[in-house]
Automatic annotation (TrEMBL):
Recorded superkingdom: Eukaryota
Gene3D superfamilies given in the database record: Jelly Rolls
UniProt organism field: Mastacembelus armatus
Residues that, per the record, bind homogentisate: 372, 393
Known cofactor(s): Fe cation
Keyword Metal-binding included in the entry's annotation: yes
Oligomeric and partner information: Homohexamer arranged as a dimer of trimers.
Name listed for the protein in its UniProt record: Homogentisate 1,2-dioxygenase
EC nos: 1.13.11.5
Homogentisate 1,2-dioxygenase N-terminal domain sequence ranges: 51-301
GO molecular function: homogentisate 1,2-dioxygenase activity; metal ion binding
Catalytic reaction(s) noted: homogentisate + O2 = 4-maleylacetoacetate + H(+)
Enzyme class: oxidoreductase
Length: 465
């Protein structure tokens, strides 16, 4: 959708008001004064006072705070925004339980599976057969932890073909990091509108209501985290610059609709892993102005400043981290969002693709476009793989043979490709939908390593160059 405006900065204190209602943000109010001089003083002071909750809001709006952290959090981690809306969000009928479809937090549906898993591209339903919107098209692939204890993650696919009409979604359990793979999204939030295209991501933080418009067959990935918010990783020895720049994160500007819905507007709430629905007779996107640092945001992956090895050996994939959701253990994440963008490979005397390894983290990978360097066949856009904790994995046989004998000259790596990884310290369980119902599990995945052969030579001698 052309013409949308944004404000930039990650976690900034921002403010916005719909230009149709100038002055909607409370800037001050005149107190009652007995004398002329007191009135003048009160008028002057009112110009410098910023009210969050004035006795009477401009335009007759309601003030409502959305808190993303405890009130008593240290200032650097305190997240909240004030919304000035036509009607408060509390005006709705009671919530009732609704069908969750393939969205779940039941990690015990099937027995655990430690095998390396790969999925072919997940199917998108045809609009001619049945209309499926964003919420109806949510499918949980794997996850761990518990929303009630505020500690865990969920990984979902969305496959849909129609826009949400007079209904919106609200996640009380955690944050959604949305990675479109096919099809543009137009996301309407209480803070304004965002478009998100493949090779972009967006984050809708806990408690924010949003609705999704699509323009055809649409597919993507979602990383959900409970109990923590995404933040930029620490840079350490990298220094002040590199990876994702805070200024490249974009937040929507205020936009409201004052719309009655006689037939009922549905609010869908994800709460403790279940879905609930309630009705109200007006649009929830009635926020005329807002200010704060707790907002939805988007980011274009092409803006990522890649750090890479320029001498020898292979750097850890941590250098490709865009966002992290930290756990209480220093240096250990609930989840990291890591990308593998186009870059130069120049390392000397080095096997350049990812090395074989076993990891104390779970690694879920997806492919937005192109061909992933370590597995150019089989791993397809719209598909996925999961290498669970301590499950061995690495390049397939073709990749190993090719790169063991390749001439080591500077080369472009992953040109036209964008792969990503959701990495987590949790040992994730795969759902019944992921293992069986979706019918996209590639049961021949293990065969990509079968051709690996022994190159061992007990008579090998070091050749000096």
């Amino acid at each position: 959708m052309a013409g949308l405006e944004y404000m930039s900065g990650f976690g900034n204190e921002l403010s916005s008001e719909d230009p149709r209602c100038p002055g909607a943000l409370p800037e001050g109010q005149v107190v009652h004064a007995q004398k002329h001089t007191e009135l003048i003083l009160a008028l002057i002071l009112s110009l410098f006072i910023h009210f969050n909750s004035p006795q009477v809001c401009p335009y007759g709006l309601y003030a409502e705070q959305l808190s993303g952290s405890a009130f008593t959090c240290p200032r650097p981690s305190n997240k909240r925004s004030w919304l000035y809306r036509i009607l408060p969000s509390v005006k709705h009928k009671p919530f009732t339980l609704m069908s969750c479809g393939n969205l779940t937090e039941d990690w015990n549906e099937v027995e655990p599976d430690p095998n390396q898993l790969r999925w072919l591209p997940f199917a998108i339903p045809k609009a001619t057969e049945r209309k499926v919107d964003f919420v109806a098209g949510l499918h949980t692939v794997c996850g761990a932890g518990d929303a009630k204890s505020r500690n865990g993650i969920g990984i979902h696919m969305y496959t849909c073909n129609t826009s949400m009409v007079d209904r919106c979604f609200n996640n009380s359990d955690g944050d959604f990091l949305i990675v479109p793979q096919q099809g543009e999204l137009l996301i309407t939030t209480e803070f304004g509108k965002m478009t998100v295209e493949p090779n972009e991501i967006c984050v809708i933080q806990q408690g924010m209501r949003f609705s999704v418009d699509v323009f055809g067959e649409t597919r993507g990935y979602i990383l959900e985290v409970y109990g923590a918010h995404f933040e930029l990783p620490d840079l350490g020895p990298i220094g002040a610059n590199g990876l994702a720049s805070p200024r490249d994160f974009l937040c929507p500007v205020a936009w409201y609709e004052d719309r009655k819905v006689a037939t009922g507007y549905t609010i869908i709430n994800k709460y403790q892993g279940k879905l609930f629905a309630c009705q109200q007779n007006f649009s929830p996107f009635n926020v005329v102005a807002w200010h704060g640092n707790y907002t939805p945001y988007k980011y274009n992956l092409k803006n990522f400043m890649v750090i890479n090895c320029v001498a020898f050996d292979h750097a850890d994939p941590s250098i490709f981290t865009v966002l992290t959701a930290k756990s209480t253990r220093p240096g250990v994440a609930i989840a990291d969002f890591v990308i593998f963008p186009p870059r130069w490979g120049v390392a000397d005397h080095t096997f350049r693709p990812p090395y074989y390894h076993r990891n104390c983290m779970s690694e879920f990978m997806g492919l937005i476009k192109g061909h992933y360097e370590a597995k150019e066949e089989g791993f397809q856009p719209g598909g996925a793989s999961l290498h669970s904790i301590m499950s061995p994995h690495g390049p397939d046989a073709d990749c190993f043979e090719k790169n063991s004998t390749a001439e080591l000259k500077p080369e472009r790596v992953a040109e036209g490709t964008m792969a990503f990884m959701f990495e987590s310290s949790f040992s994730m369980a795969v759902t019944k939908w992921g293992l069986q119902t979706c019918q996209k599990l590639d049961k021949s995945y293990y065969q990509c390593w079968e051709p690996l052969r022994s190159h061992f030579n007990p008579n090998w001698k070091l050749t000096k160059k």
